[in-house]
Amino acid sequence: MTRIIDGNEIADGIRAELRASVETLRDAGVQPRLATVLMSDDGASETYVSMKQAACDELGIDGRHHEIDPDAPADELFERIDALNADPAVHGILVQLPLPDHVEKRRVLGRIDPTKDVDGFHPENVGRLVAGDARFKPCTPHGVQRILAAEGIETEGKDAVVVGRSDIVGKPMANLLVQYGDGGNATTTVCHSRTDDLKAKTRRADILVAAAGVPEMIDGDMIREGATVIDVGITRVDADTEKGYELVGDVDFESAKEKADAITPVPGGVGPLTIAMLMYNSVKATGIQSDVAVELP
Ligand SMILES: Nc1nc(=O)c2c([nH]1)NC[C@@H]1CN(c3ccc(C(=O)N[C@@H](CCC(=O)O)C(=O)O)cc3)C=[N+]21
């Protein structure tokens, strides 16, 4: 029987443990605070930011939301980041992506204080991850590692194939899978839109991570019998539902589940872990900045 992995359940477990870490900080007189910054009027981005704020509320983290007009000059965003960097009561800063075209993403990510960079996208944090000395693991790949661990899926010696090479998922995911240690030691292949004969590569995967952002591009025919399939893609497609859309993963779930031993659904798979690991990084950031020793799950 194919196991359908319940991401909400795994995320709930992590959040329950994080609540105790937040308590430790509060008992020491430190109130964890996460600033989210949205410079977009995209509906999906608004939804994600409000989910992050709701997760903060649930854990006792003070979530402060900041909005910047998407038509404002980039300097307005930079000044806001500078102010948040300088505020000792703010421990984590998340600038929601994507940003408007006139705002250079690289300049934004490089401007956030690396000790407050809960996304782990600052070049210093990327470098530390690659060097095997991660400070903040990027939330989605970290969440995928937690799913594999929770499901007892060994990565050591396995063939892992990541489809997608984005800075926020594909590249850090591949890096984590190839690192020495728990959740790593996999033989890792990174595929992308220009990969020749993609199917030949994905079919070799014991662990397949689909993170290309192309709805249903991976079907059962591309999956090895008995594989673990992790679907990171979440695309909104117009549909005749209450919200006017539905969420579609990068994996064609119906055909994939015929081949996979374990598979994550969309929604209810990786998405909830992304938010849980953002909370994890926010607690970690608070510990680093306040010099309070906190146990992390
Ligand atoms: N600086 C930055 N950091 C991010 O971490 C970041 C970002 N920008 N931009 C956009 C992506 C996307 N992302 C998601 C988080 C949670 C769900 C999630 O929880 N999804 C639910 C369903 C959500 C729904 O109903 O729409 C699920 O899969 O079950 C999805 C996507 C974080 N991102």
Question: Helices and strands in order, then pairings?
Answer:
Blueprint: E1 3-4, H1 7-27, E2 33-38, H2 43-59, E3 62-67, H3 74-86, E4 92-95, H4 105-111, H5 123-130, H6 139-150, E5 159-163, H7 170-178, E6 187-191, H8 198-202, E7 207-210, E8 228-231, E9 235-238, E10 245-248, H9 253-256, E11 262-263, H10 270-290
Parallel strand pairs: 1-11, 2-3, 2-4, 5-6, 5-7, 7-8, 8-11
Antiparallel strand pairs: 9-10
The structure holds 5,10-Methenyltetrahydrofolate (GUE).
5,10-Methenyltetrahydrofolate binds next to helix 2, strand 4 and helix 10.
Pfam family, one: THF_DHG_CYH
Family: Belongs to the tetrahydrofolate dehydrogenase/cyclohydrolase family.
Domain Tetrahydrofolate dehydrogenase/cyclohydrolase NAD(P)-binding: 138-286
Kindly describe this structure:
With 297 residues, the chain is an alpha/beta fold. It has two domains: 30-122, Leucine Dehydrogenase, chain A, domain 1 (Rossmann fold, 3-Layer(aba) Sandwich); 139-270, Rossmann fold, CATH 3.40.50. 39% of the residues lie in helices and 15% in strands. It has ten helices and eleven strands. The two termini are 30 Å apart. 5,10-Methenyltetrahydrofolate binds next to helix 2, strand 4 and helix 10. Pathway: One-carbon metabolism; tetrahydrofolate interconversion.
Main traits of this protein?
three-stranded parallel beta sheet, 2 domains, 297 residues, single chain, binds 5,10-Methenyltetrahydrofolate, alpha/beta, Rossmann fold, 10 helices, 39% helix, six-stranded parallel beta sheet
